Amino acid sequence: MAFDFKKEYKEFYMPKNKPELINVPAANYIAVRGKGNPNEEGGAYQQAVGILYAVAYTLKMS
Prior knowledge:
Number of domains: 1
Oligomer: single chain
Order of helices and strands: HHH
Structural class: mainly alpha
């Protein structure tokens, strides 16, 4: 069974009606470092986001 983050960490995904400070536990993330114009067709930014999506999708479905 898949881990349901919204169910396990309700305080992060279902916030209260008023602002409050919370402590978010350490977690692993995937990210792309760099910069670029997101509107540039076929640019480095768009390529990086495409790769990031492909990796995230593969990890989620594995």
